[in-house]
Amino acid sequence: MAQDPHHKDSHDEETPFAELSPDLVIEAIERLDFPCDGRVLALNSYENRVYQIGVEERAPVVAKFYRPARWTRAAILEEHEFSLALAGADVPVVAPMVVRGESLHDIARYPYAVFERRGGRWPELGTTDDRILMGRFIGRLHLVGAAGRFQHRRRLSSEEFGWHAREVVLDCPFLPSYVIDKYADLTEQLIARAEDALAPGGLFTPLRIHGDCHRGNVLWTDAGPHFVDLDDCMTGPAIQDLWMLLAGSRDESRRQMADFVEGYEQFRPFDRVELALIEPLRALRLVHYSGWLAARWQDPAFPRAFPWFSEPRYWEDHLSALSEQLDLLDSDPLEL
Q1: What are phi and psi of 176, to 5 degrees?
Q2: CA 60: distance to chain centroid?
Q3: Is residue 240 within 8 Å of residue 156, measured between CB atoms?
Q4: In whole angstroms, what is the distance from residue 184 CA to residue 176 CA?
Q5: Can you tell me the distance from the alpha carbon of 61 to that of 285, in angstroms, rounded to the nearest whole number?
Q6: Using CA atoms, how far apart are residues 119 and 36, in angstroms rounded to an integer?
Q7: Which of 27, 65, 164, 272 could, after both became Cys, cross-link 6 (CB 3.0–4.6 A)?
Q8: Residues 104, 73: contact at Cβ < 8 Å?
Q9: 222: which residues sit within 8 A by CB, 6+ positions away?
Q10: Confidence class of residue 203 from pLDDT cuts 50, 70 and 90?
Q11: 112-133 confidence digits (pLDDT tens)
């Protein structure tokens, strides 16, 4: 997930990375005593800018330049501390390098961090063994996550991921006039239902989680899964890091979740009550995703990557998805 779309970036938020030239990227790396060999390759990233950078007489490194004013410095450092704690517990994540005693550095107005390059492939999760292994991975991550608390990272909530996103979309200039009322009504119902499900003292005990654990954010090697980025780590329910890995029909999702939980519970208990949160969380994600795109639309990278977002057909399909999701909120929770 992306940062709260209601959040305002700096004065030139429309082109937040305009000053981040290749020369500045190289300078940032060489400041940390990595002599660049001139190779700079932009990697797939929208919120931040990420580059693979060639270094003389060693493997390339990866540098992440954070979107200005998106996070506080304290929030970024909590991300790093969590990553380093996971790595210290032998959980397979790529933690930022600590250079001269620091994991976070600055150049111009860009906070940045450097990582070892780590490859991998899309996780198919097509076998029981792979799904059990993935569940073990998440269980290990949550075991570390439950051992501490975030003070500066956001919390998964209907306000953060629902109401703010809805407000941004309703202000969006290319939201077709003929869908506005229907969009407003559907999202109000969806968010209110999610708000009830996520009420404090309700269905879950919050802990530090990855927060955006879908298959596109997992890399798989012969050794199993790993994360290369915890940019969206937050406080939330354990199920948030499991439900986005599901794919297919309800029966297929049930079998997949049973495998994930089998692996997960090799490291920590999983409260099955949280299965009732899957559809409310899915509802929030639907609303938040459109709000994120609307909030970032002035960044030139977004119209290039998501040209369909400004087309009426997208909003018509989005209304259908929201309506279907409202029906799903009335269905029985997934059972193992």
Answers
A1: -55, 135
A2: 25
A3: yes
A4: 12
A5: 32
A6: 20
A7: 164
A8: yes
A9: none
A10: confident
A11: 999 999 989 999 999 999 999 9
Residue 139, Cβ neighbours under 10 Å: how many?
24
In this predicted structure, the answer to whether residue 159 has a pLDDT above a threshold of 70 is: yes
Token pair 């799903």 is found at 328
Average pLDDT over residues 62-79: 97
Sign of the CA dihedral running 324, 276, 169, 181? positive
Is 229 known to be catalytic?
A: yes
Say how far apart CA 17 and CA 281 lie, in whole Å.
31
Q: Which domains does the chain have, with CATH numbers?
A: 28-116 (3.30.200.70), 128-328 (1.10.510.10)
Q: How far apart are CA 168 and CA 34, in angstroms?
A: 42
Which run of H or of E encompasses 52?
strand 49-55
Q: Residue 322: what residue type?
A: L
Q: DSSP 3-state assignment of 157?
A: coil
- Nearest 5°: the CA angle 179, 320, 281 is 105
Residues 6 or more apart whose CB falls under 8 angstroms from that of 306 comprise: 293
Higher pLDDT, 313 or 216: 313
Catalytic residue among 4, 33, 171, 229: 229
Q: Would you state the structure tokens that stand for residue 82, as one six-digit string?
A: 């969590």
Q: Which of 284, 206, 188, 208 is nearest to 244 (CA)?
A: 284
